[in-house]
Amino acid sequence: MKKSRAFSTVLSVICAVAFFTILSFTLTSCETRNEIKIAVAGPFTGPVAAFGEMIKRGAQLKAKEINAAGGVNGKTLTLVFEDDTGKDKEASLVAERIASNRQILAVVGHFNSSCTLAGKPIYKRAGIVELSPGSTNVRVCVGSDWTFRNLYRDDFQGAFVARYIKNVLGDIQKIAIFFDNDDYGRGLKDGFTSVAEDLGLEIIAAEAYDRDNTDFKAQLTSIKAKNPDLIFLSGLYSQAGLIVSQAREAGITAQLFGADGVDSPDFLTIAGDAAEGTYVSTPFVFELGGPEAQRMAVAFEEMHEVAPDTWAALTYDAVGMIIEAIEKGGENRTAIRDHLASINSPEKGYNGITGLTYFDENGDCTKPAYVKIVKDGQFVPAEGQMLSTE
Amino acid sequence: MAQFLEQIINGLVLGGIYALIAVGYTMVYGIIQLINFAHGEIFMFGAYFAFLCVTTFGLSFWVALPLSMGMCALMGMLIDFVAYRPLRDAPRLSALITAIGMSLVLQNLARLIWGARWRKFPADATPTLLTGNAIPLPGGAQVSFLDVFIILLAVGLMIGLNRLIHLTKIGKAMRACAQNRIAASLMGIDTNRVITVTFAIGSALGAVAGVMVGLREVTEPAMGYYKGVAAFAAAVLGGIGNITGAMLGGVVLGVAEALGAGYISSEYRLAIAYIIMILVIIFRPSGLLGKSTATRA
Amino acid sequence: MPKKLFTPKTIIFVVAVCLFPLLAYGSDRIVDLLYERGLLLPLPSARYILRVVVMACLYMLLALGLNIVPGFTGLLDLGYVGFYLVGGYTAGLLMARLGWSYWIVLPLAAIHGALWGLLRGAPTLRLTGDYFAIVTFGFSELLFRIVKNEEWLIGGPNGFVNDIPAPNLFGLELYKYWQQYYHILILLGLTVIVVHRLQNSRVGRAWAAIREDERAAESMGINLREYKSLAFAVSAAIGAVGGAFFAQFQVNISAGAFEFWESIFILCMVVLGGMGTIKGSVIGAGILGVLGELLRPFGGARYLIFGIILILMMRFRPAGLLSAREQD
Q1: Structurally, how many domains does chain A consist of?
Q2: CATH no. for residue A259?
């Protein structure tokens, strides 16, 4: 008797599940045929939601502009936001939700490299483009024709920062690295270290921190004892802001240098006065990005009442690229991929606000990096730039 | 040498913070045998309350601190009343799941209200006493006023708590409940009231830790998780249910974390502290100061 | 004691479970046909539903494995994700780096997991209650750190193992969702049989005795060391099998999938369903495994509601939906 009761419980649970799943779909998808749908996947909630927020805003701005200008082939562009919470398990579920939704033509996302990688096999099997505006891990685009990104890889940026320090900053000898113990921070650190050592720079310390920790004094104390000329912050802006302020409190006077993860207005609010004089490398600088970038920055502030950051700009461009691919290639998934894959030289490149984007055979892209410095509480372009993509 | 001294101080500051949180875990555990997973979130709310007081309401830091303590004490009592009291006689793990649910609710509530963005305590709202220059120590080391303040505050509060437990009537009632709740209630002690007071005191101390972390580091919705888990480990390390043990456990864990990160490997920062904790527990199966108990899951 | 197994209800249930992918794909086909005629039904796709269901089944397997320690022997395990991780990385590394076959890797992962279970069990045999709990937590945290940090071992930062191949059955690559569904169903079925046999054997009775009173059990001649070690090993081996399945299902894995929260999540399933019962673990995992997906439309409030549901369920069914002690 008990057994059958349990089984009927199971049955009713399954029925309830089916019912609610259907309900959830009804809630999320209201249908009209006269629209173009693309998905934007990112960490909109969870511990790295601050990035997701900017990604969402960048995409919203681009969609608003496109629709104001008459839409895509006369149809309204609708964005479908899917939240991967920054976790790979969630990312694969979200990826399947997107991939199996017949109306969605392409995906802008994901942000975390682990999430882009988790989605990769699913998007590949379903045949839908995944264009990441934020994943920089070396392996992201390898082995799938359907995965692209519109920013450079960790190893390129690491090498760039090492060369910049050697060639432009000059009198730096001893370098300490303080890296985020995650794929981004580690990949960047490895890229930086190998080139820096070839250039004759001395790496005297490489300390790690965890993304969920907020006390960096122990690591900073041991970095301080080695007295470096420069500290390379290979991590994201929230932690970097805190590291910079704690480093100055601990009496560290070394030059600070962050990578694109640090490039955000939030870095300045968290670090406060301590941010002064910090260098940051970035895939683009609004000031050097031409009039389009300036216009986008103003429009962004009007729409969202905060200044845009790198990720907002890259997402803005990623949405733009997908729309261009729909207009030029056609309104189906394969046509979008074929069009993106055909953008394989600077001449054919997509000219967005973050510069010229074109892909190599993997779907990686080559983009110059810029350097900014914090002056009077603002990011301004550094005097020396080094615009090679070698 | 200077480095060693500074690392010890880093460890003591961390230890003080862990101890303040761990006391909340251990006091509740001592009386109702519940691992209050939501305690880390109370610590987080403490930081947010103080942050709001000084930014939105423009209050002085010295008003914000006790206000935040009071708010958290209320919150702790409320959580006990709403979530834990109905489960007093249920299996222990059910209350644990309720606590986990509570922790999820509070953390996501904070995210919905304040967003995921990190909040740094505004520099102009920080009392001048705490922003003073670093104090030089022998051997070229230095320590900031804030760190000294945190250590002194933690020590002061711990002594205060110790006196409260040992000298007052409610302290006596708490000790009685910790020994045997049923016997205590038979002796005419209002155990529900004692439990409420326990939650209030633990939460208020957690709030102090939260405000200190907000001041020294940052305020964000996930802050309760990392420090909360470490503090719980500290409570167990010291002997769960034992208040002095929680203080000692906090300091041991904090110093182990700082020295581990400074001298062994920063990649294994807390993991080193956990290894030490595991070793201690293996050789002293009821923690540093705990008495041998036979509680089961 | 032995109940009739083939009642009409159980037969319907078994048939429904076996035909589930067919139903899902069938409804997909109907939606497709209607879509071509210009009518769009707001139904979730079969692949998405199957992915959710396969993950839920995986959690059922893990919940069954975890249940052995807190449910049968009464020791609170907060580090179960450690074994899941061992299985995941054993399978992932052997398959992706060395190209070993999944069918060899799966038992190896189970054995490897069991070894770690014994290794963790040995020093913790005399620990009780929350001291045991915190050691298990510390242990899983340590394993988590190792895969996150040791790039020479894993081959990528943050525990990245890429391109884990699908299991190959006589030249057929089993990566499609319906194949994965039957795959996990078979693993789950085997686990249920193993756990059921153990529970209703001398071993299971010894575990129950340990759970109810360790001292009394010892004085009745139960060898605590042996029986506890056996529980740890079996529990860990099941967790590792789950990990191995997960690795090939996920294709690209990272350390992020093996955080402390996963241990807590699985523990919630076990307690919610009712500790110490097979059905309880399966039902608990089924509910919580899909609940997160059902709450997706709520966006940022999703886990807030998840927490409220946990609190309410414990409030009204404090002993779990089905509990061992209630049934006995």
Answers
A1: 2
A2: 3.40.50.2300
Please answer whether residues A63 and A79 qualify as being in contact, where contact means their C-beta atoms are separated by less than 8 angstroms. Answer: yes
C76 near B CB under 8 A: yes
pTM for the predicted model, two decimal places: 0.91
The domains of chain C, with CATH numbers, are 1-46 (no CATH), 55-327 (1.10.3470)
Angle formed by the axes of helices B243-259 and B269-283, nearest 10°: 140
Q: Which of A27, A100, A114 sits opposite C297 (nearest CB)?
A: A27
Complex prediction ipTM: 0.90
**Quick check: C156 and A26 CB within 8 A?**
no
What residue numbers bound the domain in which A375 lies? 155-282+371-381
Which among C57, C85, C181, C251 is the top mutation candidate for probing chain A, defined by the most A β-carbons within 10 Å of its own β-carbon? C251
**Top-tier CATH class for B2-118+126-283:** mainly alpha
Contact yes or no for C314 and B287 at CB 8 A:
no
Q: How many whole angstroms separate alpha carbon A125 and alpha carbon C227?
A: 46
Among residues A247, A297, A245, A241, the alpha carbon closest in space to that of A264 is found at A241
Domain boundaries, chain B: 2-118+126-283
Q: Are residues A208 and A332 in the same domain?
A: no
Indicate the pLDDT class of residue C156, thresholds 50, 70 and 90.
confident
Tokens for C64? 């069954």
Residue C152 burial class via C-beta count within 10 angstroms: exposed 0-12, middle 13-18, buried 19 and up: exposed
Calpha distance B58→B71 (Å, rounded): 17
Contact B222 A249 (CB under 8 A): no
Q: Is residue A19 part of a domain?
A: no
Is residue A5 in a domain? no
pLDDT tens digits for B162-195? 999 999 999 999 999 988 888 999 999 999 999 9
CA distance to partner chain B, nearest, from residue A333 (Å): 34
Is A364 among the domain residues?
no
Confidence of residue C326 (pLDDT cuts 50, 70, 90): very low
The pLDDT value recorded for residue C170 is: 87
Do A94 and A186 lie in one domain? The reply is no
